[in-house]
Amino acid sequence: MNNQLWLVLGAGILLLLLVSALFGPLIAPHHPLRQNLSEDLIPYSSEHPLGTDKLGRDILSRILHGGRISLLVGVSTVTLSLAIGLIIGSLSGFLGGWTDQLLMRLVDVLLAFPGILLAIAFTAVLGPGLEHVVIALCLIGWTSYARLVRGEILALREREFVQAARALGCKPKRIIWRHLLPNLLPPLLIQSTFGLAAAIVAEGSLSFLGLGVEPPTPSWGSMLNDGRQFLLVAPHLTTYPGLAIMLTVLALNLVGDALQERLTARSR
Amino acid sequence: MKRYLIQRLLLLLPTLLGVLTLVFVLIHLIPGDPVEVMLGETASATDKQALRRDLGLDRPLFEQYRDFLTSLARGDLGRSLYEQARVTEIISARLPATLLLALCAMLAALVIAFSLAILAAVNRGGWLDHGALLFSLLGLSLPNFWLGPLLMIVFSIQLGWTPVSGRGGISHLILPALTLGLGMAAILTRILRASLLQVMNEDFVRTARAKGLTEKQVWLKHMLRNALMSVVTIMSLQFGALLAGSLITETIFSWPGIGRLTVQAIQTRDYPLVQGCVLVIAVSYVLVNFLTDMLYKLVDPRVSYE
Predict the structure, then answer these.
(1) Closest CA to A125 of B77, B278, B46
(2) Is B292 at the interface with chain A, CB within 8 A?
(3) Contact B278 A245 (CB under 8 A)
């Protein structure tokens, strides 16, 4: 399958997920928290196309609402990490010297941790909750953007157009914003696509361990965790939220790969 | 080699110190009174005071940090709040299970990746190649907290081929090792396939064939050996993901390793034990990266720190 087709397929799935997340409350057939104990653990019915959970809550409605949480956490984490990484990477790459040394050693220390482990440790002490999840994921998330920005700036600042701007008396802030940033956008976009996929999986992992959003708010990870106790009698409880995470991550990976290939082809 | 080792050791020390500082800070990030969080609001004032003294929380921060580092140097990670044992003893009892699982996961990843990548490279553009790429894409998109239950449903519950959970013989290892190793297998397949395709067209491979070496010799001595460098890099980078992934995989399969211990410690708010587990996992990761760098130098003497 060619690059264009992967890109269209990935973007199509993403668009579908985005629309269902944005309009989830309108599309959802039931309220995600509405319980009906007389209809618990139904695998399929016309009223509940994806079945119900142990409390008789509609799985489809919970998946649609859970998608909002996953995307919210993913987008917030990427935006915040990108902003921090952009500032630190620009300072490091543009100023060089001891500022660069200091900031890059900090990045080294944070990268010495397996990312999700630090996130688990921090949410374990801060307690569950959406904002804690985002903070914990940003703690390491910004480092990859900072490294990327620094590397790109180091390469770009020797190029003629940057040297010309400097010779014309442009201030560092203007050089970064007007000349360097536009050139940084394509690699940052690709990194953000993979970052979004990683953040969604990380949120799922934290929720799966009971460290993500607090119940009864639905999230794909916590739905999987709830369903684990009913693997034998109701495997649909784990199948659908798992499928939702996999499709989202697959779509983001497809788009990221296709964009990366395009960028590499262009730079050749 | 000696100069390289010294340079790398000099970089290792600040990184290790940074990791230790972060782990030390953890317990101080608990909102409110950490002692109250650990013991609960109903605990008596005497118990709270005793725990505060035991953990050294009644002393200035700098003194606590100094004591933390000196205790660590003695191999002391404190006592668990509930298990009436030293954290180091509890962790040492669980570590072999995690190492065994990680080793089997790596082995599974290597076997899958080498088989698929070779088949894909030999049949470039064919359906086997597309199949390997699809496997790699799906493997990267399947989170282990879904893959684990999925494998359990199919192989343990429906087919009854493997035990559902726990530790015992080799059959207990299969599903956890596959769950933990699939992500690594997916990345390795992709990288190894790309490396093999690149090496295939190199002059030295053409020369090896021209001088009459058998196809087996060309593959083993020239192609796979040269593609090995990228495998070492990815395995080292993925080792961290493997350690972190053990938290989830061990929880799913009730595997009695350090990952499950960490999750149990988090659930019971046994923070000294959480601190100890995080420290051991993070330090292992740093050391594995250090050893990988040393391995690079051995595999390829051109590697330097410039």
Answers:
(1) B278
(2) no
(3) no
